[in-house]
Amino acid sequence: MTTSTTGRKPPRYKKILPPVISVLFWLVVWQAAAMMIGEGILLVSPLSVAKELLRLMGNAEFYGTVGFSFARITLGIVLAMLFGTALSVAAYKLPFVQTLLRPLMGAVKAAPVASFVVIALLAVGSRNLSALITFMMVLPVFYTSLLTGMKSVDSERFEAAAVFGMLNRDRFRFIYLPYVTPHFASACEVGIGIAWKAGVSAEVIGITAGSIGGRLYDAKLNLETPTLFAYTFVVILISLVLERLAKRLIVYIEHRLEK
Fold first, then answer.
1. How far is CA 188 from its chain centroid?
2. Amino acid 43: pLDDT
3. Among candidates 114, 127, 254, 90, which has minimal Cα distance to 188?
4. Could you read off the pLDDT of 33-72 as tens digits, one per residue?
5. pTM assigned to the model
6. Given this model, what pLDDT does residue 124 score?
7. How far apart, in whole angstroms, are the C-alpha atoms of residue 88 and residue 81?
8. Structure confidence at residue 8 (pLDDT)
9. Which residues of the chain have pLDDT under 50?
10. Pick from 115, 113, 154: which is nearest to 135 by CA?
């Protein structure tokens, strides 16, 4: 007797293997490019970056530097998430709020980070610069995404909810949540990436002491290319990990609310 394999999940290695092969491929390309250039100041090899990262990880100052930037950029993300959610709800309920916010959000999305950094430096100084810049750059992402999600809700669902006397709590769980959650997850994915790019860029421009951006600036001045690449790798890694954690947290909260 044969057993049907329909509906079986593919082996775990089939999910892991493609991304692993992709990473290895680009590491080989990186190594080949470094060997062809043959100039450590312009492009260092992956092995050199790994050695430098291990050296940095053995120094307590490294963790203080990463923690400094992590705390401020994360604060900016959280504030942007809270304010973006509140403003999107207000704009959805009150059309004139959306009209008032449209030029502001458009200006923030279009303006270069450097312009905001110069102005923000005068307002908050360099130590809290990355938090403010992160907040300003990520706020439009959450506002626009969540507002789009709420506007996409089928109006017939509200009519049915009114007929059956559905409570506001149930309307949120069974009407809004399925439409808004994908947009919120997308906002987190895009917003976290923008946050670390904008936040670290602000630290570099503001020459924030004790931050990742400050170390990148020092590495540039001293031609410490391995250090520059190592801290860049740390930024990319933190951003990717936070994106994955945010997705898992959203799925968990969604499942809890649906019970």
1. 6
2. 83
3. 254
4. 888 887 667 788 889 899 999 999 999 999 999 999 999 9
5. 0.84
6. 80
7. 10
8. 65
9. 1-6
10. 113
pLDDT score recorded for residue 166: 63
**How many other C-beta atoms can be found within 10 angstroms of the C-beta atom of residue 195?**
25
Q: Is 200 exposed, middle or buried (0-12, 13-18, 19+ CB in 10 A)?
A: buried
First to last CA, the chain: 39
In angstroms, rounded to a whole number, what is the distance separating the alpha carbons of residues 31 and 37? 10
**Dihedral in degrees, nearest 10, Cα atoms 222, 225, 228, 232:** 170
What's the CA gap between 85 and 144, in Å, rounded? 9
Token duo for residue 181 = 């959650």
Give all domains of the chain, ordered by start, each with its CATH number.
59-258 (1.10.3720.10)
Rg (CA), the chain: 23
Cα–Cα distances (Å) from 48 to 35, 100, 102, 227, in that order, read 12, 52, 47, 9
